[in-house]
Amino acid sequence: EAAQGSEHVLMGDNAQLGWTDDGVLVSAESLATNIGGNDDVFVNAGNVTWTGGVGDDSLTISDADQDSQHVLMGDNAQLGWTDDGVLVSAESLATDIGGNDDVFVNAGNVTWIGGVGDDSLTISDADQDSQHVLMGDNAQLGWTDDGVLVSAESLATDIGGNDDVFVNAGNVTWIGGVGNDTLEITDADQDSQHVLMGDNGRINWLDTGLLNLIESVTPEAGGNDTISVNAGTVLAIGGSGKNEISTGLGSDRIIGDNGRITFDGQGEVKKLTSTHFEFGDGDIITSDGGDNWVIGGKSSNTIDLESGDGDNSVIGNNGLIEGENSIRRLLQSLDVVAATAGNNNIATGSGRDYVIAGIGSNITSNKAGESIVIGDDGVIEADDEGRYIRVASGDPSLGANNDLNGGADRDILIGGAGDDIIRGGDGNDILFGDFGRVIRTEDRLFVDAKHLYEGGNDKIYADGGNNIAIGGAGQDLFDANFATDAFVGDYGFFEIEISAPNERERILHFETVSYGRVDLIRATLEELYTTNRHDDLVEAEPIIIARPLGSMNVIDTAATMGSEARGLSSSIADLIDTWMERQSGSLRSSIASATALAATESLRNAPEAEIAEVTAGQLAGGDSTEEPLEIDNPAPDDEIIEETEDDGTLTEAMEATDEELSTDEELPESDVVTSEELDGLPAGWLATVSSASALAVAHQRNKTNAIDRLEKLRRESAARNWKKMTNPQKNQGGE
To answer: Per-domain residue ranges for the chain?
Structure first.
């Protein structure tokens, strides 16, 4: 029946204690650390300092008040206080000797080092403001002379046991240590903060009490840990092993395996980084809401953030997440070999969720919100509001077969290496079968393909909305809508204008090098594009009206799209040079995707960050340093084509065309198109019929075979003469 506020110093086995001349306790230390027994201690109330010593010991504190302070050492330990009675150190001794200890505390603030063995701790009725510092195995703790905790670190990191810790509420700092450990926090409030490490670790604070560092140590010694927290802000590193980490509503920072968390001077998380990539196992990580940052770590992980509507940032395997003032600024995958990655399953909710899935075979999904998923390796940069400004796939040699599923609202999905399945879902999506890049400025959106010689055979399902899709290398399947979607079989570059106040988008410019009969997307569109109007204009409602060539204003905008004819950029001219050299003048010797690597690195001579500096005047018909594209008008239906003397060239070419059209040779496999609607042709037509610089050109079609062959001949001749459309040497000094 001790009174509240009473002081108890209890040593289970051999020990020595020291006081000042004024009666202030300044030291407590275990002695003869290999000798002792199994002790049971019961205290109803007061402030308890206890060292169990050797053996299987138990301690029960049944009726302490919320202001009580408990310092509890399960095995051998030493403690130090200042002359003013302020606790400044607690450290395990004889770290290989101890037992299985059980501790029960009803309330108060608890500092606990379990020591060797399979230990258990229960805190049943602490209040929300209580502070708990809990170390499952051997450890050392340090405080300032003012009693501010500044360090917590595992000791004897290869020795420990399987520990179970239950806390009802309060702010919890926990390092589980070696073994398969369990931590459960059941009734914390939203204002609580928890710093949790499943295996061996180190935690540092500034003298002001603000967090400075959390990092894994000795990753080769760990276990399969379970961490469950109902609410509050969680900073967690699972450590090596198969870990399960579950959190409630709160902005959590979680690393499934080994890692490091660093902070700015205000105690805000600055960086999450994977460490010791070779150690770890498949983890299960779930959270019920908040703006979470999650790094899965090694092996195959399951990350479920589906129930919330916060802005989540996820890296499936090893990676880096940086932020400023608790706002994400950078996500980057760090794996360089498949052995440190795995096959991940990642689900996110209804916020602006950004995901780099990792270089294995991954499955991702999201409910809604402006979401970004890179299927394999890559990087995402964000502005000071946490919204993306640059998204880019990474090393094309890293990756596997992914299944990426978008939700409502815009999704940017990049499949990466391998044979990927991309489903856009509802919303105006940007979809890449293989590798790509998206850059966003205040008034522009730039979309282009990367690493054009690399990739797999992908399936892209645009689903609802007005979508942009780029297949990349390989034999790709598109399921899209010609009336609403813009899609490209191989390489494409889009420049999109963003207009305030609702971010209305309009395609200003498009470039592709894909052309010829092997492009089945374009061939299908040309067959569809046959409707003649009374004024001899060819129309595809509801967006694009394309005039016969010659006026150079080849597109009249109706609602959301528009462009003027412009010359080829130097990068595209160089790209065409490369293509023509590879083709040796033939349109049939290879697929476009096998000829366009230069476009990934030289799309613009300026750095990526300066792409937005391309002037609006150049892109909207103003002054340009590029030569205009010169193309002859096709003859209208009612115009009589005067016969001229044939020097044999045209006849020879026509005969070659006839022979080509009648051959039984199997065409090269390329991109296959299925379409929900074949009676409309706006955005899809612009994105796929255009040749090198987004000329949406519609020829009036004469139904006679001769004129049809002549049109084919003209197109092929135009392609062979692409080099003549610009003077590449003119731009050798750069744009």
So the answer is: 1-171, 520-635+668-729
